């Protein structure tokens, strides 16, 4: 069962050396053709900012009662309405929050999408858009997320075709 309300507040937020810890994911899938057949081309899911300030990948605060992977999965459900497999961490970045003028530490994971939800907590606040890696890199507003995307694309490109994620039975929109 999924919780259909976003967490809010910062009482449980993790901090490391004074920096707020945020965790996110880069949702991806293999593109389907008009007949629903999965091909080799990758697509990446970006979401709009609730304040209308560009596109990004799902991310948010890492809380004391969850692992990094649990936080990444929760954010993908809350902000993008997608479920899937969290994979090996892409890295950690230190960045300045323009909104708060303080440094944050961001942790990013790939998320192989297995299901898109019709309803999710922030559906009315965000749009989600599937696009190519080049398009996602172009529109993403955060430099550190672009770097994480580059790492993921390189990692996925090095996987032989016969070892890629198997086709799943779940229908994606």
TrEMBL record:
<dbReference type="InterPro" id="IPR015797">
    <property type="entry name" value="NUDIX_hydrolase-like_dom_sf"/>
</dbReference>
<comment type="similarity">
    <text>Belongs to the Nudix hydrolase family.</text>
</comment>
<dbReference type="InterPro" id="IPR020084">
    <property type="entry name" value="NUDIX_hydrolase_CS"/>
</dbReference>
<keyword id="KW-0378">Hydrolase</keyword>
<dbReference type="GO" id="GO:0016462">
    <property type="term" value="F:pyrophosphatase activity"/>
</dbReference>
<dbReference type="GO" id="GO:0005737">
    <property type="term" value="C:cytoplasm"/>
</dbReference>
<dbReference type="InterPro" id="IPR000086">
    <property type="entry name" value="NUDIX_hydrolase_dom"/>
</dbReference>
<dbReference type="GO" id="GO:0005634">
    <property type="term" value="C:nucleus"/>
</dbReference>
<keyword id="KW-0460">Magnesium</keyword>
<keyword id="KW-0464">Manganese</keyword>
<dbReference type="Pfam" id="PF00293">
    <property type="entry name" value="NUDIX"/>
</dbReference>
<protein>
    <recommendedName>
        <fullName>Nudix hydrolase domain-containing protein</fullName>
    </recommendedName>
</protein>
<dbReference type="GO" id="GO:0046872">
    <property type="term" value="F:metal ion binding"/>
</dbReference>
<dbReference type="InterPro" id="IPR047198">
    <property type="entry name" value="DDP-like_NUDIX"/>
</dbReference>
<keyword id="KW-0479">Metal-binding</keyword>
<feature type="domain" description="Nudix hydrolase">
    <location>
        <begin position="18"/>
        <end position="153"/>
    </location>
</feature>
């Amino acid at each position: 069962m999924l919780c259909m309300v976003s967490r809010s507040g910062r009482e449980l937020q993790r901090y490391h050396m004074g920096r707020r810890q945020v965790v996110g994911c880069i949702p991806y899938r293999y593109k389907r053709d008009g007949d629903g057949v999965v091909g080799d081309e990758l697509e990446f899911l970006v979401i709009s900012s609730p304040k209308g300030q560009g596109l990004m990948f799902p991310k948010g605060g890492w809380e004391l009662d969850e692992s990094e992977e649990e936080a990444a999965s929760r954010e993908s459900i809350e902000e993008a309405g997608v479920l899937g497999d969290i994979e090996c961490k892409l890295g950690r970045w230190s960045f300045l929050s323009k909104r708060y003028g303080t440094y944050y530490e961001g942790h990013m994971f790939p998320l192989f999408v297995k299901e898109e939800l019709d309803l999710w907590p922030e559906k009315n606040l965000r749009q989600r858009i599937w696009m190519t890696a080049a398009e996602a890199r172009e529109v993403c507003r955060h430099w550190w997320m672009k770097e994480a995307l580059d790492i993921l694309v390189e990692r996925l490109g090095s996987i032989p075709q016969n070892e890629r994620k198997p086709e799943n039975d779940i229908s994606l929109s």
